[in-house]
Amino acid sequence: MNVKQAVDMLELKASLLVEGVSASEEALTGVGTDYKEQNHGLFGWDMEDHVGSELPDDFLLPDGTVVQFRMNSSSPFCIRADDGGLKLLHRDRDIAGVQWIKRPDFYKTRVSQNGKKMVQIGQIGGEDCLFFCYQNYCSHFVRGKQCLFCNLASTSKTYNSVLKKKDAELIGEVAGAAWAEGAVKHVLMTGGCFSHEKEIHVVKDIFAAICKHRGVDRIPGTILPSPAKGDDIKRYYDTGIKAIGYSMEIWDEALYRAICPGKSESTSHGEFLRSIESAVGVFGEGNVYGVLVMGLEPRDTFLEGVKTLTEMGANVVPFVWSPNPGSRLAGHRAPTGQWFAEVVREAADIVTAGGVPPGTENHCYRCDGNNLLHDALREKGIS
Ligand code: SF4
Hints:
By secondary structure, this protein is an alpha/beta fold. It contains twelve helices and 13 strands. The mean pLDDT is 94.
């Protein structure tokens, strides 16, 4: 990391995501009781597994930037306790004061139906996004055709911390509790790859349960199902969720086929584009997201993707890639934090010029700590 006099928060966040961070034992006091801990609801983002030790899910930089905590005991970054607070160091040099994020009360509560802990069903991403994975399963692993960066199967096996399958009523009850305590503003929901017909029914029942527990007709947030195509798009809209996402992963077509061998067999790059175009027509401009993994393809193709999606009226969520254990790319290296910061600022220029509504009702900079674009947009006054 290029440590400057005045800290560049965007580059700092990028560097923390690609180099990881460690924390002293004293700094970790209260994680899992007062502060929100990791629960491995879907993927594992740390650079090393940490079974049996409670780690924070994410933390805040002084300007409110949310950073995902990616454990790396060899990282030059370390968080230490400091005079009743926390400070971030880079090779023993003070960088900034940081804060863990408060643990929501519903994490302590159990659902009425089967006594399971609510946190085994839904978890908060960042400060205000309620995350549900309705089924922790992906068929591409069975055929050895999983995306090269993905560690879903090994995370589930290593931690075994959440219910693999969650039924609609349980999810509804958790959402009701999370909203009642004022802990969340949006939902993000995804599930495994299974038959489209079955998935729509599952999602429909879940949103009916959430609407019932909240007493509303529509839910702010995003559904990220197996790629929704044709008439299914309207059926997802009718479930009551306000936005839909498409996990395209990689923009460059040839790289997409190489990095996502299973997914690219079931949904081509062209099908993604046709579906996103239709979805913008149904959900409205700004309420459709193209989700990309940033750091595995060249700057120019990534930015071409941002430009095309923006011209279509979609927003972009680019997750910052760093290699995690259990994925086929474990042990590789991500680009530098400086590269991520420069490229994402260019992406923010493209998005701003495109004028797509920012869709912050459904997804905001407080929702997740593993994406830089919403921070780069916030630098431009869009949040
Ligand atoms: S589609 Fe790819 S990224 Fe998604 S769960 Fe399956 S292997 Fe992982």
